[in-house]
Amino acid sequence: MTIQSMALIGTGVMGMGIAQIAAQAGLEVRLFDAKAGAAEAGLAKLKTMLEKLQAKGKFTEEVLKETLARFTVLDSIEQIAGVDLVVEAIIENLEIKQGLFKQLEAIVSENTILATNTSSLSVTAIAANLEHQGRLAGFHFFNPVPLMKIVEVIAGLATDEQVIADLLELSQRMGHFGVRTKDTPGFIVNHAGRAYGTEALKALGEGVTSVSEIDRILREGAGFRMGPLELFDLTALDVSHPVMESI
Ligand SMILES: NC(=O)c1ccc[n+]([C@@H]2O[C@H](COP(=O)([O-])OP(=O)(O)OC[C@H]3O[C@@H](n4cnc5c(N)ncnc54)[C@H](O)[C@@H]3O)[C@@H](O)[C@H]2O)c1
């Protein structure tokens, strides 16, 4: 299947980043958030940002108009019916994600792909209560989504091969490098990169040096765009902490 439409559940930092690259790649994008007004606010912020980029000459006014026309804000979750792909970017909590996907399964058709942007939970566990577990995969983007051009496509134990292939193809169309990964704690990127976070915290805890010095060493010495402690702030501790625990 060539994915032409996407619904985003959870229109926070990650949800709106994914929505942006999807709309820019030509997909129809529907937005839903449990918090009243959150999807409208997310879209308004994105619109301002895209208008600034257009004013700087990054794309034409025509492209801006077409991109914005691809968005719809939904009043109720039932209005996701008919989309090819639903991507979830809500709070990082297993029971809440499981409950959401159970609810989604009752709304969408059997062919709709379900994807989670979880950074620390098992994709297999998220799919465990579904009737059609093969349709769910991990689709793990990084913050800020438009700039971090990599996405992990995670196969849970039951995920269909075709679902992985469709998500890898979509990644490419959205200008991202799709990497297939197994459903293991931290997947690839957070598994390999986590040690910078744990060691930075350890060095700080032992009073070796200050927060700013640790970040500076990794920026200036190792060429990182951002130090590990700055990255915790960007990601938010409610997301980073469970990743650390899972690893
Ligand atoms: N922040 C990061 O750097 C990062 C990176 C990769 C993956 N993730 C993952 O992405 C997901 C979202 O993280 P975020 O940083 O965008 O969070 P966020 O707090 O910015 O956004 C979450 C949004 O989901 C909404 N929401 C919460 N529960 C909901 C529900 N039951 N139904 C519908 N909407 C609901 C909230 O109102 C909020 O708007 C998490 O699973 C997180 O682990 C985050």
Please state roughly what percent of the residues sit in beta strands, choosing from under 5%, 5-15%, 15-25%, 25-35%, 35-45% or over 45%: 15-25%
Please compute the radius of gyration using only Cα atoms.
19 Å
Widest sheet, order of strands: 3-2-1-4-5-6-7-8
Low-confidence runs of at least 5 consecutive residues: none
| N-to-C CA distance | 34 Å
Secondary-structure element sequence? Answer: EHEHHEEHEHEEHEHHHH
According to CATH, the homologous superfamily of the largest domain is NAD(P)-binding Rossmann-like Domain
Please tally the β strands and state the result. 8
* CATH architectural category of the largest domain: 3-Layer(aba) Sandwich
In round numbers, the mean pLDDT is 96
Proportion of helical residues: 40-55%
Structural class: alpha/beta
Bound molecules: nicotinamide-adenine-dinucleotide
> How many H/I helical runs?
10
The description of the largest β-sheet is:
8 strands, mixed
Compute the number of structural domains. 2
CATH topology of the largest domain, anyone? Rossmann fold
Globally, the shape reads globular
Reading off the top of the CATH hierarchy, the class of the largest domain is best stated as: Alpha Beta
